[in-house]
């Protein structure tokens, strides 16, 4: 989902299949988007990346990590730290990031004054 107002991305600790189902239901992904049986950064569903995959990309290079953040719509099985890393990568692109529904423990340090 992209518009004059920006892009919507889902960052969740939930499983990829749950996040894809929600994204399809709200129109973020097409209804015919396949539920990932396995998500790999070069695999069948480049809209979805897991925390483990992001961690591997970050070890590869910061640029690989940032490219995945730009490309992907759904970030599943993320730790709170990984969520903050995705937010910081988006901010690094000069984007304004709005958060909704995050747990209070995750909010510390995300807001900049």
Task: Provide a concise account of the structure shown.
The chain contains 5 helices and 5 strands. Helix 2 runs antiparallel to helix 3.
Provide the fold topology.
Elements: E1 2-3, E2 6-7, E3 10-11, H1 16-25, E4 48-50, H2 51-60, H3 62-71, E5 74-76, H4 80-92, H5 104-107
Parallel strand pairs: 3-5, 4-5
Antiparallel strand pairs: 1-2
Helix pairs in contact: 2-3
**What is the percentage of strand-forming residues?**
5-15%
* Number of distinct beta strands: 5
Strand order of the largest sheet: 3-5-4
Which class do the helix and strand fractions yield? alpha/beta
Helix-strand sequence? EEEHEHHEHH
* First-last Cα distance: 28 Å
Number of domains: 1
| Helix content, binned percent | 40-55%
Count of individual helical segments? 5
Tell me the name of the CATH homologous superfamily: HAD superfamily/HAD-like
Biggest pleated sheet: 3 strands, parallel
| Radius of gyration, whole Å | 13 Å
User: Multimeric state of these chains?
Assistant: single chain
Task: Describe this entry's structure for a reader.
With 113 residues, this protein is an alpha/beta fold. It has one domain (2-96): 3-Layer(aba) Sandwich (Rossmann fold). The chain is 42% helix and 11% strand. It contains 5 helices and 5 strands. Strands 3-5-4 form a 3-stranded parallel sheet. Helix 2 packs antiparallel against helix 3. The model is unreliable at 39-44 (pLDDT under 50).
């Amino acid at each position: 989902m992209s518009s004059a107002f920006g892009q919507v991305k889902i960052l969740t600790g939930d499983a990829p299949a749950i996040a894809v189902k929600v994204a399809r239901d709200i129109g973020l992904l097409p209804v015919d988007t396949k539920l990932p049986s396995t998500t790999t950064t070069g695999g069948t569903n480049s809209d979805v990346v897991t925390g483990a995959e992001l961690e591997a990309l970050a070890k590869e290079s910061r640029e690989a990590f940032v490219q995945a953040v730009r490309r992907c719509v759904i970030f599943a099985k993320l730790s709170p730290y990984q969520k903050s890393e995705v937010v910081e990568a988006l901010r690094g692109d000069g984007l304004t990031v709005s958060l909704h529904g995050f747990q209070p423990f995750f909010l510390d340090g995300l807001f900049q004054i």
